[in-house]
Write a structure and sequence with these properties.
Mean pLDDT: 91
Order of helices and strands: HEHHEHH
Structural class: mainly alpha
Radius of gyration: 12 Å
Distance between the termini: 23 Å
Largest sheet: 2 strands, parallel
Strand content: under 5%
Strand order of the largest sheet: 1-2
Length: 84
Amino acid sequence: MDPFAIKREYGDRLVLGGTIGCQSTMAFGTPDEVRETVRRHIEGLGQGGGFFLSPANSVLPETPCENVLAFFQAADEYGWYSTV
């Protein structure tokens, strides 16, 4: 599913969460890809409410620690807490 299309169509009637892929970006992306995905999701989904930033499900054991750290650093860097 495309969370950006869902936000455009239903954003005033639902809350999106868990849009960062655990079996893709978090587990197999680079830290830079994780940061970029978090940035895009904050900027594209976080405005106007109806979004909480989180991985799509449980973080898998094969997820590099660097990617978990990149997730939290990007959330802080891109001001997620200030858009809530």
